[in-house]
Amino acid sequence: MRKRDALFILFPLLALILVVGLSCGRFSSSPSPPEGLQAQAPSPTKTDVAQARWAGPPPGAAYAGSESCLGCHQESADRYHKTVMGRIMSANPRTAQEQRNCESCHGPGGPHVDAAGGAVETLVTFRKGAEPVEVQNANCVSCHEKGEHTFWKGSTHEVRGLACVTCHKVMDRVSDRFNLAKPTTMEVCSQCHQTRRAQLQRSSHMPLREGKMSCGDCHNPHGSVTPALLREDSVNENCYKCHAEKRGPFLWEHAPVIESCSNCHEPHGSSNPRLLKVRIPRLCQECHVESRHPTNPYNPASGDKRITNRACVNCHQKIHGSNHPSGFAFEN
């Protein structure tokens, strides 16, 4: 009896599974396209076409001369001749390399000319991603290797793979000086240094927006022996170029001032007066917490002389240093 009951249950179950399987196969199969509308493979797009990777000039590649370039690139040449580099290399070349003009930067143009405009992979085009950054920069460094460019090798920008053409544009005159890619140095640097750009928009800021100075007055973007690509040996030496009255020497020196101006000041911009990182007296109380004056926060409502007007500086006016015999407290 038990075997017969099991068979009665098993056969309907198998039939149910078979029906469900056929139904799923029917709905999942894709219908054949109508006659005359056969499916076609999608046409290749520009991104699907394999682009020739940079191969460099072949051995023994010949120089075709800049005159050969003008047959196709006359418009680019006209713009180039208006730039500083264009006027030097076209009208007054000083070396054999400069006499090659176009080919001094782009490499031998013989294979490109022989291929009637092809073989672009043998040239240095300076387009983003077309050639390794090291190859592009090597062409620039072959001439620009002295003076301000002495410390380019191993500098922060070189190590991080920054290309010269990121900041400079040789073929068009965009800026008045330095063949910059943007009209001003500030705009060039702001492409990457967005935080500094935001700081320069604050109420108290270095006069870069007004055009009275530029990033290059304090920093050498091509490399230096100091942190932050500073032009001078230290932060203070950088500041003393303009703020000479703060240099000293002083009979009574203020320790944090001698250590670094950036202990108290934010050089790019601040929401506080005089580029201070924190408003006085809070700034002073970061160090002066245990002597003479109380360490509790002062109450502005009380009219305390330590709060009104210039706060601590009401009395301690010579905070950068004093030469008075009794100026140990930096009072006037």
Please explain how this structure is put together:
The protein has a domain of 88 residues. About 7% of the residues have low confidence. A two-stranded antiparallel sheet has the order 1-2. It is flat, with a radius of gyration of 35 Å. The chain is mainly α and 332 residues long. Helices cover 32% and strands 1% of the residues. It has 15 helices and two strands.
In short:
By secondary structure, this protein is mostly helical.
The total strand number stands at: 2
Overall geometry comes to: flat
Unreliably modeled segments = 27-50
Helix and strand composition category: mainly alpha
Instruction: Describe the strand arrangement of the main beta sheet, using strand numbers.
Output: 1-2
Q: Residue-averaged pLDDT, rounded?
A: 84
Radius of gyration: 35 Å
Sheet having the most strands: 2 strands, antiparallel
Order of helices and strands: HHHHHHHHHHHHEHHEH
Residue fraction in strands: under 5%
- Count up the helices: 15
Roughly how many Å apart are the termini? 117 Å
**Helix fraction by DSSP (H/I, runs of at least 4):** 25-40%
